[in-house]
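Task: complex structure prediction.
Instruction: return structure tokens for all chains below.
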Amino acid sequence: MRLTNKLCAQHIGWHFKKHWQVQGRRVPRETGAAAELLKMGIRVKTPDELLNKKQEFHPVDIVGIAPKAIAEDQTHPNWHKIACHLFRDNNVLVGGLPQAQVLTNTIEINTFPQQIEDAVSNSQYSKAVDRNVQNAIFSSHLLDAQQVKLPKVKLIERPAFNLPRLYGISHERRNRLVINKLLLEIEKLAGRSVTARRKLMDNVTFQTSVSKDNDLVAITLSGDKLISSSRALDPVKGKFNGELPDLYPMKCVVSMKKQHIYTENNFYPIRSEINCSHPHTIVSFFDKTIVGNIHGSDVTKTQLYGRTLLKAFVAAAARAKQINGVTSCTDLQKPIVVQCVQTDGREFHFGVFQLNTLNLNSSNTTKNYWFHRDSIELFNDCSYKCGRPHLDGYNAEPFRILNAFYHSS
Amino acid sequence: MQSITRLLSTCTLTLQPHHRGALSVLQQLRTKTKVVEKPKPGAGQQFRRTVHFPNEYTVAPLKITHLAGRDPVSGRMVAKGIGGGIKQQYRWIKWVRDGPSEGAPQEEIVVELLNDGCRTAKVALVAVGDELKYILATENMREGDILKTSRVIPRIPVRPNDGDAYPLGALPVGTRIHCLEKNPGQPCHLIHAAGTFGTILRKFDDKVVVQLPSKREFAFDRTCMATVGRLSNVEHNKEHVGSAQRMRELGNRPRSGLWKRKEGKHGRKIRRLPPMTTIAPPPLPKEQEIKLTLNL
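Output:
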């Protein structure tokens, strides 16, 4: 029964119990008794010291089934006193392309290099090639046999709706199929003379660390496909001038995670002695379920462009450091040019990066170059209509540019 | 068949004494009332959700656990009418706008305005240096705006813009403010709801009188920080919930039997507001109390 007033009135035991609930909580007041006792040379002990003596346990070092996790503190072997800003694949720069430009000391040029522009505008394909490209889109977006659970879809205006889970081709596979099939078409057009000088690699990693105005930045990014060539791409002819964007009051390392545990490794996936080791083109995929802002917002266009630039930069910088030594941070004798493509299977963003200097400090007058155009769509919609595969708004431009990129030397 | 049944019945009979012992203990326990202390609602503690705050400040959306009106310590129901609702993500607002105490104000840029499911006003993602943080968005705040923060109190009041944070003493009379510090050094706890604002009415000695959204007037210390402007989502109080289901989505349970005509709770007699009150200094920390046990 609950201890109500009525109940307490009936039973002295319960009454005491109720009374004790209130009186049992005491705030000890300073009466001066302890000081008096100390004066008389009597040590005052708390009841806990006598009643609840502390047992000290000595941990036994047991060899377990798995190696023990290393504590992420100052005892960690990779702990550094100076914190480093880390940038990985699942992050984007909050300031987008301007932030990437300032970070990599790069000026933006809103066209491709003349040689590629000419190659794009002069390219003419037969109808058969166009048909093959459209078939490639169908087979990667609709006709592939993979059926996996796709990510959950939530309607913003109706957050309580639990929509039925869709099955279909996974994002990663769809992108890989589209790129593989487009490259196959391009290789068929190029012939043996060009393809013999190119090599394709899947899932490569680039890693480098750079210092920018007293900040240390470690970048680890993956290229979902790397086209390497037997000869390095020629530097772009001409001199380009431009100003770096002003980010004030932001710094260019904003939105990168700051950590004390890191490694300052430089990693380029192919050894320099190997024949086809020069970076030519990097293809990277964009999946919005994996890549996002640290604050959880959707990725904007300019952030997407910034990601393409950083992918190209890290590949070029890792290569430059592989050739010139890890500690080099000066202007390069021979600039390194890397082409970069970022796609989500439908939208393509192309860019050409020229690394002129590894000295990224804002006081340096030599700038790196980033040639790019706005992203373009390969098609508007690819779906089943009335039970038949339907492609809407096919655009051949991405294929032309990719072809020009593959051929450039 | 009958013999098997008989056999089984004897089995149960022989097993019973064991069970009876255990049951009697349980019954004895059942009669004892377990005294559970639970907090009272309305003392500033919320019973809707607990937010899992990490050790360091982050702008990443935080995970929450719904409490459904229960006290997280005892697990007992404290607040009625709360429960369910869509699971939102919590954005950790940096309540203290800390600026330089001398020299030029610190400048910050508004990167993005976001809707936060756990509060009514919008939140703004703000960047300064290599730091990102959230603050409450004001009515006129736009992406790309530069906000100023300073703790300097000049002789002549400043001309602030929306979203700037200054001490009350630095702001001119008539300014609309929000995110107000109750006492210097405390987090900016006052005026957070969508579309609300306080108004600076007058100044005397080292106090500044602010009219809070409840229309009551309070005198704050002139060094208390406040953010300028009216909070965003002004139409929030005009919005209709629309349906019972929407109410459930918001995390409120069906209500009934709450209407009490005669108690004066629903519609009070309109009286004159109490006179201006000076904000009391923060209370001293509660003394540690010892809980003595008595096994009766």
